[in-house]
Structures are given as C-alpha cells and as structure tokens.
Design a protein that fits this description.
687 residues, alpha+beta, Helix Hairpins, D-amino Acid Aminotransferase, Chain A, domain 1, OB fold (Dihydrolipoamide Acetyltransferase, E2P), 6 domains, seven-stranded antiparallel beta sheet, five-stranded mixed beta sheet, 26 strands, globular
C-alpha cells in the first residue's frame, strides 16, 4: 500500500525532529522537550512505519533496536590499522616523550622549526571504556567493529546502533571511518546494580566491564537496555580533505554530528600538558564517566606523519596515566600455587576490594623472602597497589593497625599438591621453593597449560578447563596425545558439541607447525624458559632447524652436549646447563620428544643475531613494562646487536632493563650489584 503524500511529509518531519532532539540531549547535553514527549514522537513514527513498511529506512530512529539476536559475532578485518598508545606515568616520563619527539623531528636545529617557540600538543581525556571503529558510507552508518587485536575485530553494528549518541546519519553525505570509546555512566551503573540487587543477582564490578559486555551481547535489546554512551576522538579516514591539526580534527568530528568530549586543551609546551594532567587528577571524579589519564598528541598532522609509528603505537602520541591507585585491605590467608616446574608461589587471599576499576581478592607474594621482607602476617591490613592492567602488589603493611591477633606465617615443610609425599625443598642460591616430586598431578596439568600457551604451541582453543577435562577422561597423558585426538573422543565429553569439537581439532591441526625456540620452550625443561629456548635454538647445529614431521629428531645433539659446552653459550650458566643435560639424559624425556616429533613439524628457524655487534658478549634481563617498545621488539633489537636476553638474573648478567612496575628482579639486581638501565638509558645504548 502506497502512502499518501501528507503521511510521507509527516514521517520526514518526525524523523528530523527526533534526530534534532536526540542530538541535543545525547550530544549537547540539553533538552528542549521532555523524555515522555520524545517517546510520544517515536511511537507515532513507528505507527506510520508499521502501516507503511516501504517507508522504513536504515537511518530511521525506529531502527536503532532492530533485528533478531545473532548466533555469533562476525570477524571483520579493519580497513585502517588500529594502534594503541604507549603509557607515561610520571612527569619524567612525559618529558622523556617530549624529548624523543623533538629529537626525531630534529626540532632544535631544523630550519623548518625556526618560527616555533615550542612544540604544541593537544590533551584529551582518556576515557576508560571500550574502543569501537565506525564506518559511514555516504553519511549513513555502515558498520561498527571492536578493536580486537588491531587487525581483526568483531562486527557489533546492531548493538552500536542502539547507542543514542551514535548518529545513524551524518550531517553531510561523506565516507568516513572514525574511532571512539563506548562507556557506561557511573549513575547508570548504580541503577543497574540496584536492579541486580532486587533480582537477587550478583552486582556488576565496574562500569567498564558492563560497557564491554553490553557491546558483545548477541541480543541488541539487552544492549539497548544498558543506555551506553560514546565519545568519538579520532578521524581515521575521510573522502574529504583532512584537517591540518588535531584540534581542528575534533571540531570537524563535531560538525559531522558526533559526540566529542568537550574537555580538551591545546597546550603550547610540555609544561602546560603537565598542568592539565595535574588539574584533571582532581577533576576526574566529578564526571559521570571513568577517566584514567590524559591522551597527549602532537597537534599538527604533518608532524604526526613525520613521526610515524612503532610496531604497535604512534610516536606522536602517548597516554599520560594518572598515578597508580592504592587501597587498603586485609590479608585473610596465604595459600600456594604450584607451577609447571614445581616452583611454589605464595599468594595472599584478600578481603575483596576495588582498585583501579576492578575488584581483586588475590595478590602474589612472589616467594618466602618477599614475605619476610614485608613482614606480612595473616590478618594484617596492607596497602595494595595496581597500575593499569598490572597484577596488584602488596607494597606495605600498615603495622599501626595490628591487634596482636595477626598470625605470623611459617613456611611449611610439605604441600599437599606436591605428590603423595608432599615434600618441598629450597635449593641453595635460589629464592624459590620447589616440589621434590616433579610428576605430581598438579604439575602435570601446569605443564600442559604451558605447552598450549601463546609462547609455545599457541593452541588458543585448548584452555585449562579443556585440558583438565581431557586429563580426567584419560584422553591425554603426553603432549603427543594432543595431536592424535579424534572428533569422536571429544563428542563423548561433557559440554562438547560438534562445533566446539571441530574448532578444537582445527586449532590443533594448525599448531602442528612450530618454530624451534617454541618447541624447546614447550618441553618444560627446568630452568629453560622462552629466552633460554631461543639461545639453544641459536647455538645448536642448523640441521635441527628444518625438520619434517615423522623424521628422526637428532636427539644426540642434545644428549652429547656437555654442561661445559652449554656454559660457553652467552647467557647460560652452570645451573641451567646442568638442568638441560640432566633432562635429556632421562629415557622418559627422550621418548616424550620422539613421540612428539612424529606428530609435528619444526619449521625453518633463522635466528636474529649479529655476532660482531656492539652488544656482543652482553646479557640482558628485562623487567617491568617498556613505554616505547614492545618487549618482543626490545629483545629483537638486543639480539640484532649481538646481545643475549635472559630470564633470570645472576652475577654474570650485564644489565637489567627496568621499565614501569618492575617485579622483584630489580631488587635482586641491586642485591647482586648488577647494573640497571632505565628505559631512556636502554634506548641510548641501542642507538
């Protein structure tokens, strides 16, 4: 049935009015009419479209919640690379960033900068939410995708359409790709938790988790009920001329109809950046959205293009995080976690507390010496610190609050998880205690977890719960068994359907090709982690490095090598050398390797090394987070210059590179007198 002209005209006026009031309320934070009146207009629109379905368009306000629940999210390759910013935590960090930028631009001596008094930056608030990438074609919202791994994300268009601050149609018919942050207001978070409490269901932990979970709901009606918001902050691509500065880019986004955070500032130098950062540490709690820092960007686009990118982040921008949040809580117990090599790690069970936006109830205590150093007792009130996504640390005991009822922790002689005897031992010269029985069930499980982990065979579909299930049903008892699993074996297990079984078998098949360092690391040889595995792969005869599945593994290369020869490898000490020799002498381990090589292929391995480089003969240990380099990139740069990377510190270690939030390796380096390098000193050494 065709609609009369006056109905069509009424429909268009309704759409325009609803869009106007939507923009005013959700973008400009003002209201010309009441929510009830707006709902009335929306109802009239739906009535017309129901009567005349041919009038329904993709940009109609009625189509924000449309479509049936999805069976799953489609994976989508990003058209524009998605970067993440490196972090700065202190004034020193941000000044180092300023120096790096100016040095790379040759700012002080290049005549092109002679008219500049200083380098200008734009400061924007860093919203703690979930990143989304929106694509518009001819001004109409075409697709919304999560960041994912930066290359591939998930299509969440149906859910993003439910967010009222996201325009379905732009103010101009342009083709653009923009990036923004989806967030949930603190006030809405409180309302949702009131609803949860009334229903007798667990309360949500924090707004960010709800925002992320809501965007990934298969049913868009659930997403719509959460009332999410979005700030757009980046223009990734446009068929129009791109603005020449970052501050103009934000204005351009506003002109198109996007909601852009109004709290931004053009800073004439790095001192003004620091002032803005300090000011917002105090102002942040007043806003309805979570703010965890300030994003600092070089203002001029041409300078951004000159600076370019590292492997994962832009050189022209950085996330200037607020100081680490510290809270107090109570140690309720100290328990143990047993690792794949039998190492025992004490873990503090805490009275649950919210820190840096998430609820935590556990914190590692590293080892016996750490407990003694902190003098942590069961029942103590402690200060807990968490910066970014780093695991929380106990940094101090509040001894003034002791009641004399606190229980001094005594290290045990036996642990139930360490086999039938439960015996444990601490080897002279080491900080860690270990299980005497290296074949207890818990250690076997940890070894399997390690074998399938990212730094080994990388079988993502084979997580701890599935490993436990396979072990419990006797389907695997050695690593090689993983590669002989059949579809029927999996379908007989609880919670396994055809699709999950097929996904697992596909992942296992893809994992049958592995590099030599990952193969060695996966064996769980005591003292041999990722770095030592790389050293062994570098230094053994090259014929090991290209093997076909089923061919005999030259185990003799490992069997014949002596501890003395291994110690000649830069970075391998006597303890590690003895451990390797002892492991490969064991018949059970020879069989383990032989069986595994009947199932997998070791790919050709070309080591990154420069024997005569400037770092030849030097060994490095990395601890903490590096702001300007991914850890893998830092390792590669060391190897390219002839150096070696190790996991553990000894007196022979040349340097310890200390990043943000270092572990206890920094303290051990100080105790042993090993030189420590800050990130800036490390970068100078590389250059």
């Amino acid at each position: 049935m065709s609609a009369p002209k006056k109905i069509i005209e009424r429909l268009e006026k309704l759409k325009a009015a609803i869009e106007k009031y939507r923009y005013e309320y959700h973008v400009l934070d003002k209201s010309s009419i009441s929510p009830e009146a707006l709902d009335s207009l929306k109802r009239e629109l739906v009535e017309i479209e129901t009567k005349y379905p041919a009038l329904v368009s993709v940009d109609s306000p009625s189509q924000r919640v449309a479509g049936r629940p999805l069976p799953e999210f489609e994976k989508v390759a990003h058209k524009v690379s998605q970067w993440s910013f490196n972090d700065a935590f202190t004034e020193g960090d941000i000044r180092d960033f300023d120096e790096r930028v100016k040095k790379r631009l040759n700012f002080s001596s290049d005549p092109r900068f002679s008219l500049y008094s200083d380098l200008s930056y734009v400061c924007e608030l860093k919203i703690d939410g979930l990143k989304v990438v929106l694509e518009y074609k001819k001004g109409i919202l075409s697709r919304a995708v999560t960041r994912g791994d930066g290359k591939v994300g998930e299509d969440v268009t149906q859910n993003v359409r439910t967010i009222e601050s996201v325009p379905l149609r732009l103010r101009r018919a342009v083709d653009v790709i923009v990036e923004g942050e989806v967030w949930l207001g603190k006030s809405q978070f409180q309302k949702l938790n009131v609803q949860q409490k009334k229903k007798g269901e667990p309360e949500f932990a924090n707004p960010r988790n709800i925002a992320a979970g809501s965007i990934r709901q298969l049913d868009p009606k659930i997403t719509a009920s959460r009332h999410l918001e979005v700030f757009i902050y980046d223009l990734a691509k446009s068929d129009e001329l791109l603005p020449s500065t970052q501050i103009e880019e934000l204005k351009y986004l506003e002109e198109l109809g996007f909601k852009v955070n109004k709290h931004r500032q053009l800073c004439r130098n790095i001192d003004e950046v620091i002032s803005f950062w300090k000011e917002w540490q105090g102002l942040a709690p007043r806003e309805d959205y979570l703010i965890d820092g300030v994003v600092v960007k070089v203002n001029e686009r041409k300078l951004q293009e000159m600076l370019g990118y590292t492997g994962k982040a832009p050189r022209w921008g950085i996330a200037f995080k607020f100081p680490a949040e510290q809270v107090t809580t109570v140690v309720e117990d100290i328990v143990f976690q047993v690792g794949r090599t039998g190492v025992i790690t004490p873990v503090a069970r805490l009275k649950p507390v919210s820190v840096a936006g998430s609820v935590v109830s556990r914190a590692t205590l590293h080892n016996e010496d750490e407990i003694k150093c902190l003098d942590v007792r069961i029942g103590d009130t402690v200060i807990l610190q968490k910066a970014g996504d780093v695991i929380p640390d106990i940094v101090q005991v509040v001894k003034e609050l002791r009641t004399k009822k606190e229980k001094v922790f005594v290290w045990p002689n036996r642990i139930a998880e360490c086999g039938s005897s439960g015996k444990i031992e601490r080897i002279s010269g080491e900080a860690a205690w270990r299980c005497v029985d290296k074949n207890s069930f818990i250690i076997q499980k940890r070894r399997f977890y390690h074998f399938v982990s990212k730094h080994c065979f990388d079988i993502e579909a084979l997580g701890p719960k599935t490993i436990d299930l396979l072990l419990a049903h006797g389907l695997i008892s050695s690593y090689a068994d993983i590669f002989t699993l059949k579809r029927g074996d999996l379908l007989a297990l609880p919670r396994f359907a055809e699709k999950s079984a097929d996904n697992l078998l596909t992942a296992v098949e893809q994992a049958k090709k592995v590099s030599l360092p990952k193969f060695i690391a996966a064996l769980s040889i005591p003292q041999v982690g990722e770095e030592t595995a790389y050293l062994l792969a570098e230094n053994f005869p090259r014929k090991i490095a290209s093997l076909s599945r089923g061919r005999q593994f030259p185990i003799s290369n490992f069997q014949k090598v002596t501890a003395e020869n291994l110690e000649k490898i830069n970075g391998v000490g006597p303890i590690v050398a003895k451990s390797i020799v002892d492991w490969f002498k064991t018949e059970k381990n020879k069989k383990l390797v032989g069986d595994l090589l009947k199932q997998v292929t070791i790919e050709k391995f070309v080591p990154v090394i420069s024997a005569g480089g400037p770092l030849a003969g030097k060994t490095f240990v990395l601890t903490g987070t590096l702001k300007s380099l991914e850890r893998e990139v830092a390792k590669q740069k060391i190897r390219e210059r002839g150096g070696a990377v190790m996991e553990n510190i000894s007196k022979k270690t040349s340097f310890v590179v200390v990043g943000e939030n270092p572990g206890n390796k920094a303290a051990r380096a100080a105790a042993l007198g090993v030189p420590q390098l800050s990130e800036s000193e490390f970068l100078k050494l590389l250059s």
